[in-house]
Structures are given as structure tokens and as C-alpha cells.
Amino acid sequence: MTKVLASAQDPMFGLFRVIQDDATLDPAYAAHFSDALLERMYREVLRLRVLDERMLVIQRQGRIGFYGEVKGQEATPIATGLALEADDWIFPALREGAAMLVRGFDLSTYIAQCYGNSCDVNKGRQMPSHYSGRAVNQVSWSSCIGPQVPQAVGVAWAMKLQKKPQIAVGFLGDGATSQADFHNAMNFAAVFKVPCVIICQNNHWAISVPSKAQTAAPTFASKAIAYGMPGVRVDGNDVCAVYWAIREAAARARRGEGPTFIESVTYRIGAHSSSDDPSRYRDEAEVQQWRERDPLDRMRRVMSARGLLTEGAHEVLAAQLDDEIKAAIAVVEQGHQPQRESIFEDVYASLPWHLREQREELLATAPAVTHGGATH
Ligand SMILES: Cc1ncc(C[n+]2csc(CCOP(=O)(O)OP(=O)(O)O)c2C)c(N)n1
């Protein structure tokens, strides 16, 4: 079966790439990538890398309690933010939150999510690195593995029923393909032909479990066959390829042709999260092999090959972005802990009697000791 189906030309078994080994773009797609678009891609990937490094330092200093690194996987969130329309729905997992930055969400408000203080739109009710923004139609990940995919499919179905033009994009990791939610969502999406794109970032590890332990299928993309939808296996470290795959899938969804499943083949260079030590379960030689396919380096080489990046400009831009990030952090650290009674807000239009009682009881007790800024 595998042998009959598998062919490098087949989108589910090959690896779709746009950036070639010599850092030029595949001539079949090059015309779609203007200098301005490439510059934007490069800048956003670099900003996310610098942000990640800065946030990890802050976590290690105890200024935030947790952080989920994206390092090595920047191509997918950045391509997502650039490929979609401004009001399409995004349901990220742990490593796609930054798509909302690309869509114009304020940097300090984004960072504030990790502090959970008064600058945070969620008022500190969500774990760090679980970004969301109503203004950009991005819905928070719930930390459970998988449920954001049926949620995305549900919203896509709603868009279809309401005859709205928006589509929904739901993300999951390779580990989450072993969850029932993935299968429920894939089946429902295809049967009801909903306008959505389901993207699996195959970063090769689900904490300490390697991706080969998740499935006996030859590729994750090939799972699309059984559900009756197109599958695409794309080089997840090639920003241009991921962008193009999402553009095509989104256009297909908008034409009413139903869902597409994309496997974005990438690698988690960093730890699973700030609570993880990957040296305990994986070989450094493997990590080194993937460092050589780093999405930022590849984008940087594209820029140089195209004459868009002069000597030393990368370092200057990285320093400038780091300054912007540090300034945004300084704004967030001016914040204070959210008002404790805010735990009663934003769920009920009118507070039920038992919660009113609890609120009064809380307010009658001495306030908790507050210290500005960090919550952990
Ligand atoms: C339902 C559920 N089971 C287990 C966990 C614990 N857990 C947190 S992250 C994770 C691995 C997720 O791996 P993957 O889906 O590949 O995504 P990645 O973190 O690699 O991006 C697990 C098992 C959880 N959060 N939720």
C-alpha cells in the first residue's frame, strides 16, 4: 500500500519546498514573492527568534513562570500570519501564538500574557504562552492536547452556515494526532466540507516521545487520504513554502471546496518548554542536523542572495528588534497584579447569587500582598 501510494511528486509523501539549496526561490513560485514580502518574512522570523531568546532569559530570572519556546519552528506561525486574511480565525497550539503579532497585535500586550498582570487582556487567567486576541480573531489554546482542532472546525462550520467569507485554521503537534479530537475534527471537517485548514507541525517530538512512535502511517500528511481531503507535506523550515501551502489551502476553503490537511515538517530546536530538559531524551547530533536547516538562516540566505541584505545589516536589525522587545517588556513590568475580584468578571452578564456571595466574602478578607510586575 505504502509503496503504491508513495512518490516524491505526491504532495502527501514528498516535501514541498520553495527555497532551493542555493537560497534562490523555485522559479515556478518566485514571481509570487516580492522583495517586500520576503523582507517582511525575514523581519518577522527574526523578531520571533529574538523575542523567544529574550523571554526565555526572563523566565530563567523568575520574572515569568513558564515559557514555550518556538525556536526552529518560526516559519509556520509567521507564514500563517502573512498568508491569511486579517479576520480569518486562528486556533493555535503552543507554538503558533506569534501569528497574531504578524497581524498587528500590540507587542507589549502580547508579552503581558506571559506576565498575567494588569496589562494582560486575559487578566492573568491563562497560563503563560497561551496568547489570544479578540481584535485579531485568535483564540487561546487550552493547554489540553488537541481540542483546538475541533474548535477550529466548529467555527469554520459556523462561517459556512452564516455564509461568511472567513475561514478557520487549527493547529496541532505530531503528538496530538494520537488524540481522538484530531480524528473527530478531520472527519467532521471533510464530511461537512467546512472552510478550514488543519496544520500539524511535525516537530519530531511530543515532549520525550519521538514522532515515529505516534503513527504507523508513512507520513502524517497521508492521514488525509482516509478522511477524504487533500494532504500536503511541506518543508516547515521554508517560510515561503509554508506560506504558499497555506495560501492555496485557504483559497480552496474560501472557494467552498472544503478542508485541507498540512503537515509542516520541522524540528523543535529548544526544549519542549521552560520546564523540560531535552538532553535527557534526545541526541545532540540530531539537533545539530536540524540546526543546519534553521528557518531563520535560510531566510537570511535568501535575502542575501537577492541582494536585500547588506553585510552587518542582520546584526543591526536583531539589536534594533531586541531594543523594541526590551522596551515592550519595560511597559508590561509597570503593571500590577490584576484586581482579585476580576476572577468574577467576563463570564456572566449578571452574576448569579452564589458568585455574588463569594465575591463579597473575598472583598471582606484582607487583600493579598501585591508586588508589581511578575506574578510568579
Ligand atoms: C490531553 C493532554 N494529554 C497530555 C498532556 C501533556 N502534554 C503537554 S504537551 C504534550 C506533548 C505535545 O506534543 P505535540 O502535540 O507533538 O506538540 P508540541 O508540544 O511538540 O508542539 C503532552 C503530552 C496535555 N497537556 N493534554
Give a brief outline of the structure.
This protein is 40% helix and 8% strand.
Proportion of beta-strand residues: 5-15%
Count of individual helical segments: 13
User: What shape does the CA trace take?
Assistant: globular
In this entry the ligands are: thiamine diphosphate
Side by side, the strands of the main sheet go: 1-2-3-7-6
Structural class: alpha/beta
Number of strands: 7
Number of domains: 2
Structure description:
By secondary structure, the chain is α/β, with parallel strands linked by helices. It has 2 domains: 2-332, 3-Layer(aba) Sandwich (Rossmann fold); 340-376, no CATH class. It is 40% helix and 8% strand. It contains 13 helices and 7 strands. The chain has helices at 2-5, 35-60, 75-83, 99-102, 107-115, 148-161, 180-191, 223-227, 239-254, 284-291, 295-305, 313-332, 353-364, and strands spanning 89-91, 168-173, 196-202, 205-206, 209-210, 231-235, 260-265. The strands form 2 sheets. Strands 1-2-3-7-6 form a 5-stranded parallel β-sheet, with helices on both faces. A hairpin with a 2-residue loop joins strand 4 and strand 5 (209-210). Helix 2 packs across helix 3 (75-83) and helix 2 (35-60) runs antiparallel to helix 11 (295-305). The termini are far apart. It binds thiamine diphosphate. Residues 93-95, 143-145, 172-176, 201, 203, 205-207, 268, 272 line the site of thiamine diphosphate.
Comma- or semicolon-separated keywords:
376 residues; alpha/beta; Rossmann fold; 2 domains; five-stranded parallel beta sheet; binds thiamine diphosphate
List the helices and strands and how they pair.
Elements: H1 2-5, H2 35-60, H3 75-83, E1 89-91, H4 99-102, H5 107-115, H6 148-161, E2 168-173, H7 180-191, E3 196-202, E4 205-206, E5 209-210, H8 223-227, E6 231-235, H9 239-254, E7 260-265, H10 284-291, H11 295-305, H12 313-332, H13 353-364
Parallel strand pairs: 1-2, 2-3, 3-7, 6-7
Antiparallel strand pairs: 4-5
Bound molecules: thiamine diphosphate (TPP).
